[in-house]
Amino acid sequence: MKAPTTLSLLGLLPALTSAATLTQITTPFGPNPRNVTFNLYVPDTLAPNPPILVNQHWCHGTAEAAFAGSQWATLASKHGFIVIYPGSPNAADQCWDVSSRETLTHDAGGDSLGIVSMVRWTLDKYRADKSRVFVTGISSGGMMTQVLVGAYPDVFAAGAAFAGVPFGCFAPAGDNAGQFDYWNGDCATGKVTHSPEEWGAKVDAAYPGYDGWRPKLQIFHGTEDEVVSYVNYGEAVKLWTEVMGLSETPASVVPNTPVAGWTKSVYGPSGWLEAYSAAGVPHNIQNQESTVMAFFELGCTSGCFAWGKGSPCSGQASASSTSTRPSSTFSTVMTMPSTPPVSTTTRTTSSSVVASTTTAPACKTVPGGIPLWAQCGGMGYTGATACANGACTTYNPYYAQCVPTAAC
Ligand SMILES: *[C@@H]1O[C@H](CO)[C@@H](O)[C@H](O)[C@H]1NC(C)=O
Fold first, then answer.
1. Which fold has domain 22-296?
2. Which of 102, 201, 208, 277 supports an S-S bond with 347, CB 3.0-4.6 Å?
């Protein structure tokens, strides 16, 4: 067995005072048929029975870029939780496999199983809290977030997906059916739409017979997303309200939250689904760590997680619920504070894929420029900044990358 390898950082976060680093785990950690790389951030001081957060990078991103490009490691050091940064094995585009039958099915393989194996290994090694495993990501990482909460509802307590697509939307039809890491242009451009029942059937098929806990979910999407169409925001709301058994009519709509121009819609009486529509925002949507932190209760120190199962935090009484959720893999019985989002509806499986009719305008090219999705800026970055195609867009002070424009 090889010792864990320390990865070099793209840039140091100013607020990161911990000596902890991102570490690649190369020892066997469970089934990982696609060879997803396992990068782990364990802060020097862990909370007792710590929560775990999985943070997936975007296409052409890396675990290191996700590590340096968000506040999650800093927040993990402050609050004592563990962060797993998986790395895509898909050399062609460094996207996540969100299309294969394996990845879309519980414990069947694909990139999703590799990531879940990392979670299971970390739960065991660090005596982490299996009732508080969370997942987030942007773009392809947002797509994988929806894959994981759909196919592994027993593993994750909640997810937060930025600029992703609904579970199963990237699964290709016809000759390409079942392909790993398939870029589904119809889905990305908003041409794949389904009824709530049709979407729900895809999630049902991911884990046949499962009728237990459904993770909470936050969805964030820019209305001007030029890479992953905003249509996918509405489709995701259809899918998850169906899966959670919630009304498609929001219980509340809050303008200018968490930032001006963004609208928060809350579904269900217990807020199991939160959808944030970011007016005027393109694909490079800003991470909203504090909003996600609050939803996951990752900063909570007492009386927290009343919506979850068990009593992971000091002072937490068992939830004042009359509804006990069935549990297939958790060792403790889960109790819920309010209506559990479990749906047992029988669903139809027909699909509708609308044909493409749009023609893209010409794309400007800068010879020798930086390719799409590669880094073009950010604190500590010293390379060239001109993109070959598209525009150099800043995700946060630490990371900018070339992303397609409407023309590219
Ligand atoms: C994963 O790695 C193993 C060992 O190197 C190799 O045999 C296997 O083909 C790899 N799988 C894929 C999908 O690349």
1. Rossmann fold (3.40.50)
2. 201
